[in-house]
Amino acid sequence: MADPSTCLPLTPDSIRRTHERIKTYIHRTPLIVSRTMNKIASSPDPRAYLADDPPGIWDDDGMDGDGRGSGNEVPRFNLYFKCENHQKIGAFKARGAFSALTHLASPPNAELRGIGIEALRKRGVVTHSSGNHAQALALAASTLGVPAWIVMPTISTKSKISGTKGHKGVTVVFSGSTAPEREAVVNEVIEERRKETGEKGPILVPPYDHVDILLGQGTAGYEAEEQLRSMKRSGKICSGAAEGGHDAADGGRGGAGEGRFDAVLTPLGGGGLLGGTATWYSHTHESSKKTLVFGCEPNFEGANDGERGLAAKPPKRIEHVKTLTVADGLRTPVGIIPWSVISDNEKVEGVFSVSEDEIKMALKLMMERVKVVIEPSSAVPVAVILFNQRFRQLVAEKQKEEGTGRPCDVGVIISGGNTTVEGLSKLFSEGWNKFDAERQTGEVGVDGSRTAEDVAG
Amino acid sequence: MADPSTCLPLTPDSIRRTHERIKTYIHRTPLIVSRTMNKIASSPDPRAYLADDPPGIWDDDGMDGDGRGSGNEVPRFNLYFKCENHQKIGAFKARGAFSALTHLASPPNAELRGIGIEALRKRGVVTHSSGNHAQALALAASTLGVPAWIVMPTISTKSKISGTKGHKGVTVVFSGSTAPEREAVVNEVIEERRKETGEKGPILVPPYDHVDILLGQGTAGYEAEEQLRSMKRSGKICSGAAEGGHDAADGGRGGAGEGRFDAVLTPLGGGGLLGGTATWYSHTHESSKKTLVFGCEPNFEGANDGERGLAAKPPKRIEHVKTLTVADGLRTPVGIIPWSVISDNEKVEGVFSVSEDEIKMALKLMMERVKVVIEPSSAVPVAVILFNQRFRQLVAEKQKEEGTGRPCDVGVIISGGNTTVEGLSKLFSEGWNKFDAERQTGEVGVDGSRTAEDVAG
């Protein structure tokens, strides 16, 4: 990875500059809206839409008025999904990989002091990953003509291995599956190459714990805001519609409050995406309409390490997590650099978590009602919006304060879509009958949390 | 249904006028492109992408040149998916229902002689359907304030029943599941209402066998062409991008050959969608670049009645089909009025069919690679493009004739997305291991057909 001293600072401006650097390599993914999901999210009981006999969607049955004036405060949402499932390699990770490699490729005497493309091509890059980061780095390296060594656990699925080694100049090296085993193989690769070439050996590009990675992932949030502004200005907001054009001109218009999200939610695993997103939206802090950024985690087997770490007094990063949550992209603990952003309550407003069944319910609704294929990790923020009573109450309260009856404009970063029909089949053919029972007991506790599990995991 | 003598003729201009009439009621669904699917479709063996060890997608590995100059002629595609899975009620059927009802609602003394909205509200409408047409008519009727009686077989799924009766003013009446049983109940409803009100009783709106329905369904093809033109003009064609705005201005530009599809494919069940689409594209016949329209069917248990009917000498509509193909929207035989269009070889260039496994393979690729949820019926045209050797050979030959090396611009009408995660689970957890075997035997016969089954079903 690039010497940290040569990285841009973790600021909104650095994200804008990173976007400028990587935009020709990545897709400007669509920002889509769904009238159906707005209706479901803005209903008093979104779970009702999962019943065998769900309420209708299309009639103007007065639901728009739900909760206003009544005793129950029901939050109201206009949701905007930033579809990184349509990103190259099917996930946002392409952004971070291109950010890291284009920094390294910068000439040493340029402002962004890298090692230069020639030196980079001599040395190459290395990482260990069994998931989207492996494919993202393989893509970025082969695109720039840089050799890459990707250490993958032998137990990785065949399709992921071939999706990684299918790129030109990429070598997959196998390892055991624990972190020490993987790191040992990375060191072996570096040592071997060093001996072979007499050079310094391949440069490690970690999946999330580096400033360049955060700056890259943050560009998804940057684009989403730009697209919202362009949609609001053109009036092109309709159900099923998408804004997918390249570089819609901004012209610097859209003053405070115009085309700003009220809130943006991202999944939280290692923290690259949340850290980058929160860094971008800190630019709204001088404005009258601040965009609040939230992280979203599964709470199964303690996967909500971010939420638990923030709840500790004093807040403290949790370093080890062992969970088999269905949201397999979110099984890692938050990294050190992401934690520095996430634990800054000026940047991240809060972290919320949801149960496995809530994730599956949200995934089912996104697939059946919005007709998009997303990976379980991407359903986590949707589940927070639909089912986390503390989050919903917070939104309802903000709306009551504002008093205009305007629904909240909420951005949701859909992190990726790398799943298989077989994987989905497995998910929905087992243990898939809990929500009706839960529905009966989903009471809101005195502090607004549904159950102790929400916090303690 | 409206008196046939008051219907517009089955011409492109009538489709334009129908679109004008219904456009405020329906969604202008996005037209999306996928670089990944273009690459898969343009490869010599699309099945390879279903193997455990599939070829890469993102490297520029020279695949764009595949088949050119070599002995094997490989067709090359730029695919455009018209996403009616994002239409209201999740399928194109909303178009036909609004077309039928807005015609009926026209005043008797207007050009389009209906019975007037007041008379229509007094009489109401009736149909029998267990699927998308039931919900489409329920939506259109409730939107226009017209009472509707929908006869549904008692065995219909609960979600479809509630999706139908959830609309205001809609009454679901149950029946047996055979056609005579359903028709008997329709007649009972009409008789009963007639006695109750002293009026003529509710008007029958059939699912496909009526000119108004064809004209409505054809508007999907009309919009797709308009969107292609707008995309080509703006240069806004990128992977993952979508054109979803309302009424992009055309300005009458785009002369012959500019922004025209080389071919458009639709699923073929009752024939409303194919008949309407072919009617619209007959407007290209005076142009130097004619858009060829193809129908696509499953061949399981003789579901390819359209293909078989056209192959008969002389061609003859097949009136009865009994099949349990996974493409459940395509189990019905072609209707009389649709047949009049489909059997006109000036309008429909051909009908091709695919096996159950080919449909599942196409569905899997659309979900995993394009990240969209579609119903199995909508995967049928995709399967024809990827796996029907006769179709692929035909495209390759046209390309050889043209000699420019330009890929074909092919529109695919994605008819709907009404499926459930449980339904998908069932589909992909059983008998899902055939494609590797088939891959070995997928030889092309002397006449270009893969096996006798393709034609005989």
Describe the structure.
Chains A, B: Its cofactor is pyridoxal 5'-phosphate. Chains A, B: It holds the Pfam family PALP. Chains A, B: This is Tryptophan synthase beta chain-like PALP domain-containing protein. Chains A, B: Belongs to the serine/threonine dehydratase family. Chains A, B: Residues 78-391 form the Tryptophan synthase beta chain-like PALP domain. Two copies of one chain form a homodimer. Chain A has a domain at 31-89 and 211-456: 3-Layer(aba) Sandwich (Rossmann fold), CATH 3.40.50.1100. In chain A, helix 9 (272-281) links the parallel strand 8 (263-267) and strand 9. Helices cover 41% and strands 12% of the residues of chain A. Chain A has 17 helices and eleven strands. The first copy, chain A, is an alpha/beta fold and 457 residues long. In chain A, the strands form two sheets. The first copy, chain A, has a seven-stranded mixed sheet with strand order 7-1-2-11-8-9-10, with helices on both faces. In chain A, strands 5-4-3-6 form a four-stranded parallel sheet, sandwiched between helices. At the A-B interface, helix 5, helix 6, strand 7, helix 12 and helix 15 of A face helix 5, helix 6, strand 7, helix 12 and helix 15 of B.
